[in-house]
Design a protein that fits this description.
alpha/beta; 6 helices
Length: 140
């Protein structure tokens, strides 16, 4: 069965990363608080999610590109967040350069719901995000 991809956080780094992903995989469900950022990806195959829960229901792999671990925790574990609707076996890939202690705590909370989590911070900045040449450091 093909993976269904969700992408949360379409800012300076996340937007270009989602665009690269869409050029490769042709479709993904996308979410950002700024609806214009979601709409900008529609021509490339982005399907705007009305909520985080809708994105979680539609996705077997969810990538997060958010400012800090605080936002990651809210997106994952907050009211109507990813954990409220994700199916068991869903994989969350956190691209945020976050706090390792917080990442471990979130991974444990998600594991209780049979949701997998890996920490995959990116390095390189906006220009590499636009060209698809970011470095990614994965831990899980």
């Amino acid at each position: 069965m093909a993976e269904t991809i969700g992408f949360v956080g379409l800012g300076n780094i996340g937007g270009p990363m989602a665009g690269t992903l869409l050029r490769t995989f042709k479709s993904a469900t996308v979410f950002d608080l700024d609806t214009a950022r979601m709409q900008a990806l529609v021509p490339e195959g982005g399907m705007p999610a009305g909520s985080l829960a809708n994105l979680a229901r539609a996705s077997s792999v969810i990538l997060l590109s958010l400012p800090t671990s605080r936002e990651v925790e809210a997106v994952l574990l907050g009211k109507d967040g990813i954990a409220s609707a994700a199916k068991p076996g869903t994989l969350v890939i956190d691209l945020t350069s976050g706090n390792p202690v917080a990442s471990k705590a979130m991974a444990a909370a998600l594991a209780d719901k049979q949701i997998r989590y890996i920490d995959a911070g990116v390095s390189g900045g906006v220009a590499p995000a636009q060209t698809g040449t970011l470095g990614i450091m994965i831990g899980g």
